[in-house]
Every structure is written in C-alpha cells, then in structure tokens.
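Try this one yourself first.
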C-alpha cells in the first residue's frame, strides 16, 4: 500500500484539543482553507489531561485522545516547545510549565536568559535554539496520525508584541525579525507555491495536510 493510502482523510467537524488561545488561533487559521468546522476543547469545557509523556508526540497524543473520547469527534492537538541548545534542550516539553512557574512569559524568558548567561552563552553561535511542534489527529474509533516539525534559530533579547508565548525571544535563522515582530501570515502562513512554511507548527501542518487533508 502506498504511504498516501495508509493515511486517513480528515473532514467534517473536529475538536481542536488545546486550551492555549495563541495556538488555537494559529490552528484555526491553518485549517481555515479546508472547510473544516472546528470547535475547541476550551469552548466545549473539556478537561485538560495531565501531560505525562516524555516526548512532544506522546503529549500531543494524550491531548488528542482525551478530546476525541470526550467530544466523540476527531481531535487535533499540538504539543510544542522551545529547545535551547545551551540548556541541553530545556525547556522543551516543559515550556508551558516553566512559564507557569515563572508567572508569565516575560519572566520565563528572563529566567532562561539568566540560565544562558550563567552558562556563558553570550555569543550568537552559543545561543542556538529551535521550536518543535508535534501534531496529533485522533478519531473516536482509535485511529491515530502524528506529524512533527522544527524551526531553527537563536535566542535574542525579546522583541515584538505579536504572536504568543516565547515568540519575542526567538529569531529564526535567516531573518532579522523575531517571531514576535512578524505578522501571523509571515510566521505561519502556508506559501501558495508549495515551498516550506516558516514556523514549526505550520511546517508540521504542511506534512499533515499532504497526508490527511484535500
Ligand atoms: P495546550 O496543552 O492546551 O495545547 P499549552 O500552552 O499547555 O496548551 P504545550 O503543553 O504544548 O501547550 O506547551 C507549549 C509551550 O510552548 C507553551 O508555553 C507555548 O506558549 C510555547 N509555544 C509553543 N509554540 C509556540 C509558538 O509558536 N510561539 C511561541 N511560543 C510557543
């Protein structure tokens, strides 16, 4: 069987298994051209499962499975995070937890900056980082699909008010503006010419769309 035939097509009504407003906005924008009616886990007051996985994919599956069962609809989840080379990949899958423990994202970015300074990571080459997005689609009958992508860049002094989370802190490779300084279209728009999108989430979505959307 070809790879194409082994994937299941997504259509109709789905639940977006996130309680993060920034992610929800991006996921809705990504789905918009496909005519899929999407309601969010927050709008349905679905409970947030504990993210006990040790990988992005495992946590995306935990969220999508919980929503697929609770809503009896196909569920679409993202687990994502910022991995800083100088910190051995932290905060990684704990990116949301670090922000919660710090109090807010500016404080979390200041905390990460402090840890990087303590490691002597002051030169651009020592400040490499990447964002990861793992996307999971889970149907109520148990069928599952997963996709993952990254975007590489480096940590800079936070700049910009756009986007959400750690966006002001991340300068993608080859750009002179942070994600926080970009329009939503520039960060996660899907190029019409079929070339690669910029953000981790848009890149993972491009792979998902080729496999599961028409
Ligand atoms: P859900 O689990 O409900 O989807 P969450 O915020 O807990 O929401 P994660 O567990 O996946 O989501 O944590 C991802 C963290 O990484 C979270 O703090 C995000 O704000 C941050 N993050 C992920 N993608 C990002 C992006 O594109 N820009 C900025 N920050 C991002």
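Now uncover the answer:
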């Amino acid at each position: 069987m070809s790879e194409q035939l082994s994937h299941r097509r997504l259509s109709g009504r789905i639940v977006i298994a996130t309680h993060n407003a920034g992610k929800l906005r991006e996921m809705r924008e990504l789905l918009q051209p496909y005519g899929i009616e999407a309601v969010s886990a927050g709008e349905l007051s679905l409970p947030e499962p504990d993210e006990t996985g040790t990988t992005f994919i495992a946590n995306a599956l935990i969220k999508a499975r919980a929503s697929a069962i609770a809503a009896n609809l196909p569920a679409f989840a993202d687990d994502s995070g910022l991995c800083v080379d100088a910190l051995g990949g932290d905060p990684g899958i704990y990116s949301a937890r670090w922000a919660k423990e710090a109090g807010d994202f500016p404080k979390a970015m200041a905390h990460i900056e402090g840890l990087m300074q303590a490691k002597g990571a002051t030169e651009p080459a020592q400040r490499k980082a990447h964002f990861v997005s793992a996307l999971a689609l889970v149907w109520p009958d148990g069928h599952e699909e997963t996709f993952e992508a990254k975007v590489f860049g480096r940590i800079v002094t936070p700049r910009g008010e756009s986007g959400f989370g750690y966006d002001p802190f991340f300068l993608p490779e080859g750009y002179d503006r942070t994600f926080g300084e970009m329009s939503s279209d520039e960060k996660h728009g899907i190029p019409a010419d079929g070339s690669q999108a910029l953000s981790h989430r848009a890149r993972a979505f491009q792979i998902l769309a080729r496999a599961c959307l028409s």
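Discussion: The beta strands are 13-16, 37-40, 75-84, 128-138, 144-155, 170-172. The chain has seven helices and six strands.
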